[in-house]
Amino acid sequence: MPAKPFDAETIHVPLNRLDLAEANARRTGREEGLEELAASIAAHGLLHNLGVVPAHDAEGEPTGRYDVIAGGRRLAALRLLAERRKIAKGAPIPCRVLAADGDVTGASLAENVVRVAMHPADQFEAFARLHAEGQDVERIARRFGVSPLTVRQRLRLASVSPGLIAAFRAGEMGLEAVTAFAVTDDHEAQERVWRQSQGYGMHPASIRRLLVEGRITLDDRRVRFVGLDAYEAAGGSVERDLFSEDGEGWIADPALLARLVDERLAREAKAVRAEGWGWVDALPALPPDLWRMARLRPQRAPLSAEDEARLSALGERFDAIEAECGDEPDEDQSAELDRIEAEIEAIRAREVAWRPEDRARSGAIVAPDAGDGVRVERGLMRSGEAANDDAVPEEEEGDEAPRPAAKERPPAGLPAALRGELLAHRSAALQAEVAARPDLALRVLLHALIVERDNPWRAVARVTLRSPALHVACPGIEAAPAHADLEARSAAALDAARVPEGERLWPWLLALDTAAALDLLAVLVAPSIDAGSEDWTVPGGALSPAEQVAASAGLDMRHWWKPTAEGFLGRVTKDAIAAAVREGAGEDAARRIAGAKKQAMAEAAEGFLNGAGWLPEPLRARPAPDTSPEAETMLQAAE
């Protein structure tokens, strides 16, 4: 009878007398993680003895060597340490001698199969305990043979909200989701997004997007304008996504960044003001209505004879270099060409001069440019100021910033992700309204079928009846009143109709009365409606097809959406909260919440706006102009 495992004899065998047995069950992955295992053995010793059997020669005589049945990776790690002279080649290794006539393959298999790997959450917390005990990241990395980045990642994962870690342990979310939540240390924000995702799950990318919305990324224009080095030199810190391949990060102190932007703009504006302009505005970005402002023209001034001679010499030298090198100048030639071009530009700039009287009655705007520099727009006339014949609209001067199209102007005050959620709520609400109006659903379907022939992108409903993925733009949309209403109405209609399947379906449809068919049509068409897209534009400023359907349905978003602290107010700026309260509840209410911390301000604002019927801009109905023939056609079809 084979010896029991706990009865196995323990001996010490020199490392150079140990061999990997053919009976060792592990074949795949023997080399994986050897660096980490070797570092662990060097730091903590061999925590588990090797399982061995005596080796015999062809005549059955003991050779004095031992075959390792259990512990092949440990043996490889020990040999790695010996190669690096961390231990002696003949170092005594503790081993359990297994019965030679026992089931050695079974013993090897049992060691690898029966054991249960440590849960990742336990590993995160163990690393966190070591760090809390005073061990720095580098020391922990050396002890376990991993990179410092790996240690920092595990420490970051350990800092995720305990409630979410508990859900991870319970199998309610995967490791990728935990990694997405670790993009922020804000437990409140983590738990809010987790509550939104419960019930249907959420892709890690969606979790991450919701948690970082509104944060200032390192490629933001303001960061480039100030310079990341200058921001950090002023005491600012950067939050990094430790799990991003490109090292994505965010500004941790937006207030400091804003101050540094203002300080640089003030310095640039001071220099421009010294030129003698009547007014100078320093702005964080060029105003969207810059194209509306009239602009004075600078006057042409003749160059001096010296400048003319210098221009001629520079041009000759430039041509000579190009003739010599062609299209492939070397480094020195390229540098000289750049210097010549810069000097030519500086001289040409002297050909343009502003009259003192024009400077005095016009002004300039200073703002960051698209890179890390500053852009100055000079000779601008404020609205209402008198201008002479030299004043021309901005667009006639060939300005680099022409009038933007209406759809390219992002709305102020709302993060893109939050705006997307509002539009998803609008789509869900319109779906619920159309589901209750079979006559309107029929016309929506007809509109889609007619328009798709030539302009498929203009259809309100997708003819394939594929529902837009509202949950991607708005995690938690399933809990919205509109979604619940649509689900209940659909379930009732389908249950009442008792729709058959297969070859019985068509005869059943032929026998269905028109009223019942329309009821069924409404709940089948409604989920395909997408009122969230803002790419629909109608010439002449008319309502988009989705807006026309909403008007015909009498859609009032006040019945389907409320401004709550968690879903909206707590996710916009304090200025936006104050503006909403001022608009919905009056100036006195806005004054009462001024100065409060953001969370308290959002909660108080929710109380003031409760029942006030206030809606953010994306959810407000837009009046339809009467000038669009297409709008009139759609309205007639919907009546």
From TrEMBL:
It comes from the Bacteria. It holds the Pfam family ParB_N. SMART domains: ParB (SM00470). One of its GO terms (biological process) is chromosome segregation. Residues 400-410 have a biased composition (Basic and acidic residues). Residues 11-113 form the ParB-like N-terminal domain. Gene3D superfamilies: 1.10.10.2830, 3.90.1530.30. Residues 381-413, 615-639 are annotated as: Disordered. Residues 387-399 have a biased composition (Acidic residues). SUPFAM superfamilies: KorB DNA-binding domain-like, ParB/Sulfiredoxin. GO terms for cellular component: chromosome. This is ParB N-terminal domain-containing protein. It comes from Falsiroseomonas algicola.
